[in-house]
Amino acid sequence: MRFIKTIISQMTLEEKVWMCSGADFWRLKSVEHLGIPTVMVSDGPHGLRKQSDEADFSDINNSIKAVCFPTGATTACSFDRNLLKTLGCALGEECQAENVAVLLGPAINIKRSPLGGRNFEYFSEDPYLTGEMAASHITGVQSQHVGTSLKHFACNNQESYRMTASAEVDERTLREIYLPGFERAVKSAKPWTVMTSYNRLNGEFTSESHYLLTDILRNEWGFDGYVMSDWGAVNNRVKGLKAGMDLEMPGSNGTNDQLLLQAVKDGTLSEEVLNKSVERILRKIFEFVDNRKPAIFDKEEHHRLARHIATESAVLLKNDDVLPLKATDTKIAFIGAFAKEPRYQGGGSSHINSFKVSSALDAVEGMEHIHFAQGFVTDVDETREDLLNEAIELAKSSEVAVIFAGLPDSSESEFYDRTHMKLPNCQNELIKQVAAVQPNTVVVLHNGSPVEMPWVDEVPAILEMYLGGQAVGEATVDLLFGVVNPSGKLAETFPIRLEDNPSYLSYKVVDNKIYYDEKVFVGYRYYDTKEIPVLFPFGHGCSYTTFEYSHLVVNQDHIRDDESLIVSVDITNTGKVFGKEVVQLYVQDLTQTAIRPVKELRQFEKVALQPGETQTVSFTLTKRDFAYYHTGISDWYVPTGQYRILIAKSSRDIKLEETITVTSTIDLPFKVTWNTTFNELVSHPQLRPVIYELLGVIGEENVDKEAQLEMVKEIPLRALRSFQGVDNTTIESLITTLNQLLK
């Protein structure tokens, strides 16, 4: 697209500034005499929320009829890269059909707390899983020559005070938890755009952060698209453009345009910086325009795809031989308002105007042995005795009771956070009462985030549908009756109670700051390291068949950190029906060099197996899979020592393990000072002989040097004056000698 530079050379300064903000809420600006057309962006990421020209931005329900696919919280549980790519392709087709150039998503902020109001849009508490799901989603959408906008960069992990609050995050935590998902998606899928978050990061608005937008995003990760603001997120437009924030959305009625114009004229903003932003925007405009194609998408076909995705993503949390439901069951009770009107999406900017919605009752229409009782109302948390008694009587007279429960619409939305993890009291009461009279009680959940389950031990089966999209009713019935075997795994931990969450004491906004005091211990990294009991662990999910793990093989037992390790394991379907299993690989650092989680997810693969079939799954591990972010060198570092390779069904269900040794190729910078301890000195191979010799001099003969070192390991060199009577000149000479050995 060499002609773009020619176009820019023909633009006036005013026209360049003009291109760097939106024409309205959904469109970029055009320059007709230069052949620059207007293009449209639209909310996503799990459906197309294209608003008409007449619609008000705040009217989230006034958009075109479209297909609502399962939300990010749901699809992440599929652990299926190909499924996310297929979803992306379908969304790209819809965008082409509706002349939408950029779909605003995926949204990939980490689920720091289960209270996050927008968690239903986000993928996971784990950065690796998040990055893999995001990259696949982006690849699918952009295969249709439609752009994506990876959001929200970065640390938009709650809704409260999101437009002003500062996320206070240390560098290591930022690099290990909150940036890797963006990094993986940018490097492997190359999104057309990245959207900045509303919040500040360590005091600076992300839309003004040169560190985030230029140093990391562009210079480190190689991002070559344009950066846009979240809607209304711009604080200082000139500073933002300098930092690398190219496009302001939706614009500010020309106010910020004038500030940019004046800044160029008075020399506080380089026109060359402005030119680069314009070039990045134009490249993506023309990439869409030059690849426009006539497109008509089949809504019914995409509805069927939404149904398939929901079945592949739902998680069977518990099953004591009640599911699947059998055709011989003569009477089944469907209980709960969500059986008739399911909760299938969240509130806010991702709200889709679905062209149709299937309920579980719709899906079983004509099955005369299934009977319905409402049980509760969704908009008021009040036990209706008439509805409760009707449900209890129906459950008593049935062989199986299926309760459709979940969170009401008002519980989960953009703009605000949840205040607790509880289901409505009326639903908890219904479940307890029904379970008391019907031992074969199944609970189906419709929610975008974890909920507490005080009745978990009183029911034999729980099916987590999350927010399963407009085909959720059909998908639920497919799973209940075994038409599809559940294969989803939890992409987040379900704690027993809110107080167990690692961010519980620091989630509140204080003085317009949010302190990430739990550091890298987010989600299962915290629960598993602390060995805290959980309701259901990360990666957990049941099946209607069984799987055996065997023959774990590593191709080497000793590698350098610049070498790869190949790991393979056999998975066998030992049951009687077809099923899919998510094989999870975690790495555990045994070196005790740094404070790290007890294990971290590094690879996964979903395999499909017929009864009796065995498949070998292979993984390749590289340096980053063993490393932590070392702030002293501002880079990833692998301490020399042993690491455990864990093959698991969940973070709490380890099936096989193997231990290897990794040798670091990086020498950390080190300088001996008066306050350097003996333990630090003996950790360096080139200094160890000198220290052992020194211990022989200052200690008694025939004393075990290791035992002696254990006694003095935390003593600094300066203490030799007090404990051994060594003079300053001798200590200074020793320090000089040791530092020379390190050169």
Automatic annotation (TrEMBL):
Pfam families noted in UniProt: Fn3-like, Glyco_hydro_3, Glyco_hydro_3_C
Ranges where the Fibronectin type III-like domain occurs: 581-651
Entry keywords, A to Z: Hydrolase
Annotated GO MF terms: hydrolase activity
TM region positions: none
Membership in a protein family: Belongs to the glycosyl hydrolase 3 family.
Name the UniProt record assigns to this protein: Glycoside hydrolase family 3 C-terminal domain-containing protein
